[in-house]
Amino acid sequence: MPFSPGIQARGVQLLLSGMMTRVHKDLRFTDIPKRTESLRVETGAGPVTCTVYRPPATTGTPAPVYVNFHGGGFIVGRPEQDDHICRYIAATAGCVVINVDYAVAPQRPFPAPVTQAYDVTAWIAENGPANNWDGSRLAVGGHSAGANLTAAVCRTARDRGTFSPRLQIIDSAPLDQLADPATKLSPIAKPLLNPYLLRVFTTAYVPDPADRAHPLVSPGLADDLAGLPPALVITAEHDRLRDEGDTYAKALDAAGVPVTHRVFAGVDHYFTHTGPVPAGKEAIELMASTLRRALTA
Fold first, then answer.
1. What residue ranges define each of the domains in the chain, with the CATH number in brackets?
2. Identified catalytic residue from 101, 239, 243, 268
3. Dihedrals φ, ψ of 9, to 5°?
């Protein structure tokens, strides 16, 4: 008898939980000082713990803020996997970075992670003065599942007319949860993601197939993209998710959204964590420099 989707997801969750914190030693940026503190934010889907990274240098005015959502296929809750990215961005982009430990499936499927991601970001935008950051100069971003949540946060903020991020970073995102994962191809024989894993991720996060075309689940299927924040879209040549990222970048541009799109050659999903190191460093620096321009303009 085959295992139920929930049991399959928990098995993959256990398998990946340790692996997701492994970052190439030359991408850890341990030479950059780290100033962090913990923050707890109440949301409509329960409290969320966040790690706040402060820039090493302080000025007389509150720094802008970047909200980061980690990856993990919507089922792995390990925000520390992005410590190196948060550390680097806080130091080089001169902003406060808030790394969000959102809820994950199968224990908390859609829409709980989206609710938490949006509510945390809205709280950050509204509560800058009490926390010594400038919530009016805000950006959002993430890798993989976190990039999907980033798109959902930006869409919700636009539709509700609340805050206006100056930038969204969409890195290697799953943007079409309706398509059969077997149709998502790679030019290499054994890419990091395989159809079975993608199917487990989607089934755990969105158990009801009727929800998989929802624009907060599959932003790449939406046709009303006008008015979204400027975007940095990063895709990897060997990633099974590359085509939907490339398509989303083109659709944003066609809708009048300012887009910087970069395809990194010869790399796969998660290269900003496991390398190759030169490409990983280049991508993280691209994030930081694009943020610095967006948040200081």
1. 5-296 (3.40.50.1820)
2. 239
3. -65, -40
Contact present, 213 and 290 (Cβ < 8 Å): no
What are 245's two structure tokens?
Answer: 């990222």
Q: What is the pLDDT of residue 1?
A: 44
Query: Whole-angstrom Cα distance, residue 289 to residue 279?
Result: 15
Q: Which of 101, 143, 144, 273 is catalytic?
A: 144
In angstroms, the CA 108 to CA 74 distance is 9
pLDDT in tens, 53-84: 999 877 678 999 999 999 999 998 889 999 99
Choose the catalytic residue: 143, 214, 269, 273: 269
- 136 classed as catalytic: no
The yes-or-no verdict on residue 163 having pLDDT over 70 is yes
Helices (H), the chain: 5-19, 83-92, 112-126, 128-131, 145-160, 195-205, 242-254, 271-274, 277-296
Q: Any catalytic annotation for residue 214?
A: no
Q: For 101-124, how does the pLDDT look when each residue is reduced to its tens digit (9 = 90+)? A: 999 999 999 999 999 999 999 999
Annotation says 289 is catalytic? no
